């Protein structure tokens, strides 16, 4: 009977104690969060409840499995398995705590600053910091788990002895990966490009949707995703429309007949932008920028608060101006000659009239 009750008491006590401690910690964090709503850290730390319970459970089982008498012949293997579980759950807990601290810091910064560019920069840095911390903790946890195996500890000395040669070989083999890794850090802390920035890459217009340590994703206007290595943005030129502020100036070009009523077009443009919600009220204008033997180029200039609004106001001006010209000034639209122009009639020939006769005969 004792062989049955002892494992049940150990396992049951571990489960009950784990659940009680997890519930108490969660309740404590909930009360602190309710008293300090200005600090989101306590609410975010509640996500650590499950890894905390796993750490506590594996630690208790590792300390008491000898007294349980369960699978006594395999206690060395069970102890090793519990040690691996403890390392993995501890790494999970550390990652959750680090993510909660970083997210809380970003939330407070975003609430205190109203500049969208600075908030996007911090958001980019926070995202990459989270990924770096996760990667480092995962690598350390895997290394510690491997060192728990006796064979790995025996091979450790020889691995360290050949670390120089292995480092050179790994550096050559992973040159591209390491280049992308350092490029990702340069993007994060060099403020070259941020999450949410509007960019033009290889003729594609889109928004930065994701930045990792090795690749970057651009979401285009038609919902496509372009994935490219982050080293592209440190080695090749690209357009960043959000750099230095989100306000933008856009242009719309019209190729019209030389008889087009430019002053009336200027008044019509003013009416269009005043009725367009996307216009920010900063500037507008029309000017003749070029001429050809058959047409002239008219440029309409408008402004907006960001890239999305500048696109909206440009297509609105283009559509309404063309419709207005078609309805009220169709002669202003460019014409294509389909037949040869008629030649002028030749000049009439003047014939000298005979002098009148005088006298008889």
TrEMBL record:
Residues that span the membrane, as ranges = 6-29, 78-107, 128-149, 155-174
Region annotation (Disordered) ranges: 336-361
- Pfam families, per the entry: MS_channel_2nd (PF00924)
Domain of life, source organism: Bacteria
Please tell me whether the keyword Nucleotide-binding is annotated for this protein. no
The record's subcellular locations are: Membrane
Q: Please state the protein's primary subcellular location.
A: membrane
Keyword annotations: Membrane, Transmembrane, Transmembrane helix
Please list the residue ranges annotated as the Mechanosensitive ion channel MscS domain: 177-243
UniProt keyword Transmembrane present: yes
Name of this protein: Mechanosensitive ion channel
């Amino acid at each position: 009977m004792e062989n049955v009750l002892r494992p049940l008491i150990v396992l049951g006590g571990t489960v009950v104690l784990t659940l009680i401690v997890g519930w108490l910690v969660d309740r404590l964090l909930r009360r602190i969060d309710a008293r300090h709503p200005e600090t989101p850290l306590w609410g975010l730390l509640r996500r650590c409840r499950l890894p905390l319970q796993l750490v506590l459970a594996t630690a208790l089982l590792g300390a008491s499995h000898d007294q349980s008498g369960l699978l006594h012949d395999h206690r060395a293997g069970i102890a090793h398995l519990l040690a691996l579980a403890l390392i993995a759950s501890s790494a999970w807990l550390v990652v959750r705590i680090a993510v909660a601290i970083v997210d809380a810091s970003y939330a407070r910064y975003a609430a205190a600053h109203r500049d969208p560019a600075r908030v996007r920069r911090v958001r980019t840095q926070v995202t990459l910091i989270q990924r770096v911390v996760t990667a480092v903790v995962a690598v350390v946890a895997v290394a510690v788990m491997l060192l728990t195996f006796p064979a790995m500890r025996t091979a450790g000395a020889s691995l360290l002895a050949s670390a120089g040669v292995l480092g050179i070989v790994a550096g050559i083999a992973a040159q591209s990966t390491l280049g992308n890794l350092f490029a990702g850090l340069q993007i994060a802390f060099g403020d070259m490009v941020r999450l949410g920035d509007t960019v033009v890459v290889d003729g594609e217009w889109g928004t930065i949707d994701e930045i990792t340590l090795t690749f970057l994703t651009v979401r285009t206007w038609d919902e496509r995703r372009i994935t490219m290595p982050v080293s592209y943005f440190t080695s090749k030129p690209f357009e960043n429309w959000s750099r230095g502020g989100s306000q933008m100036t856009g242009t719309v070009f019209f190729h019209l007949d030389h008889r087009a009523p430019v002053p009336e077009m200027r008044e019509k443009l003013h009416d269009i932008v005043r009725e367009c919600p996307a216009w920010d009220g900063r500037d507008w204008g029309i000017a003749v920028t070029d001429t050809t033997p058959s047409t002239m180029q008219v440029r309409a200039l408008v402004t907006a608060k960001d890239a999305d609004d500048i696109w909206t106001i440009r297509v609105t001006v283009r559509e309404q101006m063309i419709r207005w010209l078609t309805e009220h000034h169709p002669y202003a639209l460019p014409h294509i000659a389909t037949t040869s122009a008629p030649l002028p009639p030749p000049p009439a020939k003047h014939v000298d009239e005979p002098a009148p006769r005088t006298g008889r005969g």
